[in-house]
Amino acid sequence: MPVTRRDAMMIGGAAVAAAATGGNAAVPHQPPAPVAITLRVNGKARRLSIDPRVTLLDALREHLHLTGTKKGCDHGQCGACTVTVEGRRINSCLSLAVMHHGDAIGTIEGLGRPGALHPMQAAFVAHDGFQCGYCTPGQICSAVAMLAEIRAGIPSHVTDDLMQVAFSDAEVRERMSGNICRCAAYPNIVAAIRDVQEAGA
């Protein structure tokens, strides 16, 4: 019976695998031992025994069941997973949970609740700052942290001429540029953020 191309590929693959292992059977992969950590999430100490390779995003979603933080690109490019760590916003998909033992972490669940919304959440609703809503938790967490950065005097990366305009739309867009809205609700998002900033909330 003739050898098909598929057969040749399978034989070749097996030969390469055998050569790579010295002809021995593959050794089963042993995962690293779990690590005990404590995360202070939204003001509460949460203790976990976790694989050290687990990202902060997956720790929040899969282990603590705080699913408001969204997994978008999983490469730090979209901002859907934005949370705050010690008051500074980060992409939680790019950070390992074990790196944040003892840190104060803020997620969308810690900002407000139905009937008692955070001012930024209320502004997003009032200005229709979302469409599908998938990016909204990250947008809101980022916006709240951004206003805190401004109050703390942390400069943005905009050019000097834009910095002369007090809290311009251009500065808001620059500071929020790490959060992508695929529905393109950007004008409404900027309007919501400006409302909260002007109200001093």
What do you see in this structure?
By secondary structure, the protein is α+β, with helices and mostly antiparallel strands. The chain has two domains: 35-110, Beta-grasp domain (Ubiquitin-like (UB roll)), CATH 3.10.20; 119-199, DNA polymerase, domain 1 (Orthogonal Bundle). Helices cover 36% and strands 12% of the residues. It is built from seven helices and five strands; from the N terminus they run αββαβββααααα. The chain has helices at 5-20, 56-63, 119-126, 136-151, 160-163, 169-175, 186-199; strands at residues 35-41, 44-50, 82-85, 88-91, 104-106. Strands 2-1-5-3-4 form a five-stranded mixed β-sheet, sandwiched between helices. Strand 3 and strand 4 form a beta hairpin. Helix 3 packs across helix 7. Mean pLDDT is 87; it is low at 159-164.
In short:
By secondary structure, the protein is an alpha+beta fold.
SSE layout and pairing:
Elements: H1 5-20, E1 35-41, E2 44-50, H2 56-63, E3 82-85, E4 88-91, E5 104-106, H3 119-126, H4 136-151, H5 160-163, H6 169-175, H7 186-199
Parallel strand pairs: 1-5
Antiparallel strand pairs: 1-2, 3-4, 3-5
Helix pairs in contact: 3-7
For the secondary structure, the number of strands is 5
Side-by-side strand order of the widest sheet: 2-1-5-3-4
Mean pLDDT metric = 87
Rounded to the nearest angstrom, the radius of gyration is 23 Å
Low-confidence stretches: 159-164
Helix content: 25-40%
Beta-strand residue fraction? 5-15%
The SS-based structural class is alpha+beta
Query: Which CATH class of the largest domain applies here?
Result: Mainly Alpha
Biggest β-sheet: count, sense, barrel? Answer: 5 strands, mixed
CATH homology group of the largest domain: [2Fe-2S]-binding domain
CATH topology term of the largest domain: DNA polymerase, domain 1
Distance between the termini: 78 Å
